[in-house]
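Students often ask what a holo structure prediction actually looks like on paper. The answer is less mysterious than it sounds. You provide the chain, you provide the ligand, and the output is a string of discrete structure tokens encoding the 3D arrangement of the protein together with fe (ii) ion.
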Amino acid sequence: MKKIIIAFIIPLLIGTFAFAYSDITFTNENEPAGLFLTWKDDPYTTMVIDYHTKPGYQGSSALQYRVKGAKKWIPASGSNFPYPHHDRTIHRIALNKLKAGKTYEFTLDGFTRIYSFKTLPKGKKKPVRFAIGGDTMHQKAWMDSTNRAAMVYDPDFIVWGGDLAYANGSPDNIGRWDDWFQSIMETLIHPDGRVVPILVGIGNHEVQRKPEDYVANDANRLRYAPFYYSLFAFPGQPGYGVIDFGRYMSFVFLDTDHTNPIDGVQTEWLKETLEARSKTLHIIPVYHVPGYPSNRSYDGGTQTRVREHFVPLFEAHRVKMAFENHDHTYKRTHPLKEGKVVGNGEGIVYLGDGSWGVKPRNTNEAWYLARRESLHQCIIVTIEGKSIDMKMVSKEGEVFDSYKIDL
Ligand SMILES: [Fe+2]
Ligand SMILES: [Fe+2]
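The corresponding structure tokens follow.
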């Protein structure tokens, strides 16, 4: 009997153990080191899934996805490339030909957690809600708090207009990006695994100090803002871009003198981009340095160039609200047109000023400011047909201002 046990049962047990052990070896962990969703194309039918892995990751840049409740998983693969100045790897997978208004589940190769996302529903009658702001992280705890305050409103996505991790494009500050992605993992994924997509623009704190003779080209943009151009699928080169929700709504992300000059090529692009969207109902510019500052000087060079080059194009193309950042306050201007205060719906309201997760600064009184505060905040924007409803929410969750625009 003893011989039988040694001959058959013990090898069987060892084999079972070895199988289980190899299973553990080849399954990394529950979750990757970083995960976020964004778009570079139509938000109704596409999604870009980025995840970051540590050395030793044994999977490939691949995932499985399905409409929630469907039986079959569909495989999808993408590409991977080095995370600049880090031992991590960036994996990027673009999903296309999705159905609008659906919930999709996905699992990443080598990880066990099941995540999900929603594609936006088509149709102007369906409300769309986003949280918007900028200057996200002096301290991770502040970013976490404002993220959580925004998530109470169940936004479809989140928009940040620059000054993200405050890494200044420097390898020395790589840990700041780790914290930034950690904050997203901890606060922008619902307990049921639904991930809220983000759209980001560029700010001065994405960029290293540039030389006097800086020339804006692909190589220099990547060199001076290595993280921004590598970590985010959108806007990618040349650093500004547009996301169209059909003809309902378009977000225009601009670069306020960070890796591209405001005037010249970028302003020409803006003109053509707005002209091509003459039938789009809501045009929403997002950029970092404010044309109508709440802390800095009205006459500052970049602020003045925003007003000289961007604002006339916004005014010529029926823009009703523009989102600015960089001053680390809350501000809402009066509706403005041609440098004057006009009535609601007749001009453009400039909102934001970037105090999502940075130390708030004092505000200055100015003829164009309708409301100014020194606090951490985000703006919750709900668009339904021609109506725009905004709630301004502090990081503690208090609604401290609100504004409505009807086109
Ligand atoms: Fe800034
Ligand atoms: Fe900032």
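The helical segments are 2-26, 140-151, 174-187, 218-224, 226-231, 265-275, 301-316.
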